Amino acid sequence: MAISHYGNKSCDTKTTGNDVVVLVDELLKEATRVGASDIHFEPGGNELSVKFRLDGVLNTVETLPRAISDNVIARLKVLGNLLTYRNDIPQEGRIETNNGSPDVVDRRLSVFPTIYGQRAVVRIFYQNTELTDLEQLGLADQILSTLKHIARANQGILLVTGPAGSGKSTTLAAILRYIQKQFPGKSIVTLEDPVELRLDGVTQVQITPFGPMTFPTALRSLLRQDPEVLMIGEIRDAETAKIAIEAGLTGHLLMSTMHSGRPSAAILRLLEMGIEPYQITSSVSAVLNQRLVRRLCENCKKDNNGDFEAVGCEKCLGTGFKGRMLIAEIMQLDGPLRKAVLARSDCDGLEKMLDEQGHKHILEDGLRFVRQGITTQAELDKVCGSANT
Ligand SMILES: [Zn+2]
C-alpha cells in the first residue's frame, strides 16, 4: 500500500542533502496527517523500508534506496538532537513538534544499530481532543459497573494493562472525568509521559524521561501534596511500583497502566518487582485488560451472509478497516484470587481460578463485535493473540 511517492522524485539519481531534509520532513508530516502512531525506518540489504502504524497495524508506505538510508537516519538524528557521529549505540531523543501540527504533543525518536545499518522509530503522541465519557467507551455493563465502583472508592489501585496503543490513557482519562463529576473538588493529580489529554480541573504533570523528573522522583514528592486521586502514566520499574503500592495502601485512589498480556501477568510482574503478596492483595482492587480491535470500513466491508470480510477502498487506504473498538476483561482481586496471590500462585494457577469463577475472557468480549459485523474473527484473533503471552 503506497500512501505517497516521495521516494520517486527524491531518490532516482543523485540525492542531495536538501532532498533528504525535504523527504524526512514530508514523511513526518504525512504520518501526522494520516494519524499514524509510529513511523518505522527499517534498513534491509538493498533498501530502507518506511512503515506507518495505522490503527495499530504497520503498513509499508515507502521503499527508499539503500544509498540514502544513512542520510535519512542522520537527518532524523539531527532533528532528535542525537549524536550523529555515533552509529554503533542505541540512542533515544525527541523531535521538537513545531512543524505546524498542533495535534501532536510529542515525537520520540529511537535509533538502534542493526547489521544493515541503523533502524529508527518515531513514535507520535497526539493531543487527544475528543474527551470520552466512561459510558461512551463501549465497555460491557459488568465491566463498566465494576469500574464505577472502584472509581468511587477512597483508596486502592486500578491497573490497566495492554500493549502500547491499546487505548489505556483514554480509559483512564474517562475514569478521572467520571470521578470529577461524581466528586467535584476532589484533588486529582496525574503524572504522564507525555500528557496526551488535557483535563480541566486536574493537575497534570509531565514526566521528563531523559531529565530529572522521573516517575519515582515525581511520585514521591507528589504524595506530600495531599492528592486524593493519582494517575501514573505507567508502572515500569520496581521503584515506581513500590511507591504506587504504598500510595494505594495509605488513603489514595491510584490508577496506572502496565504492559502485560493478561490480567494475571500484571500481578506476577508486581511480584517480580519485589512487591510482597500481602501488599498486592491489600492494595490492588482490580486489573482491567484491554485491546483495540479495528472496525471494518463501512464503505467497503463485504457481507457473506452475516460473515463480514475486510476488502479495502480509497476511504480506508486499502486496509479494509477504519477506526477501532475497545474490548476488555476485568479481574477483581477478591476472595479466592486473593488467597491464590498470597500463596504466590503462578500465572496459570491464577488463570485457572479465574476460569472456575466464570471470568469472561477478553476474546469473549470481542465476539459481540464479530457477531454484529463490526469487526472480523481474524482481526479479533490477531489482536488477542498477545492475550496469551
Ligand atoms: Zn474501505
Description:
The protein has 389 residues and is α/β, with parallel strands linked by helices. It has two domains: 6-126, Beta-Lactamase, CATH 3.30.450; 134-388, Rossmann fold (3-Layer(aba) Sandwich), CATH 3.40.50. 34% of the residues lie in helices and 27% in strands. The chain contains 13 helices and 15 strands. It has helices at 6-11, 17-34, 69-79, 141-151, 168-182, 215-222, 238-249, 263-272, 277-283, 335-342, 347-356, 362-371, 377-384; strands at residues 38-43, 47-54, 57-65, 91-94, 104-114, 117-126, 156-161, 188-192, 203-206, 229-232, 253-258, 284-296, 302-304, 307-309, 321-332. The protein has a seven-stranded mixed beta sheet with strand order 9-8-10-11-7-12-15, with helices on both faces. A six-stranded antiparallel beta sheet has the order 3-2-1-6-5-4. It has a two-stranded antiparallel ribbon with strand order 13-14. Helix 7 (238-249) links the parallel strand 10 and strand 11. Helix 2 (17-34) packs across helix 3 (69-79), helix 7 packs across helix 9 (277-283) and helix 10 (335-342) runs antiparallel to helix 11 (347-356). The radius of gyration is 22 Å and the shape is globular. Residues 1-13 have low confidence and may be disordered. Bound molecules: zinc ion. The site of zinc ion has 8 residues, from loops.
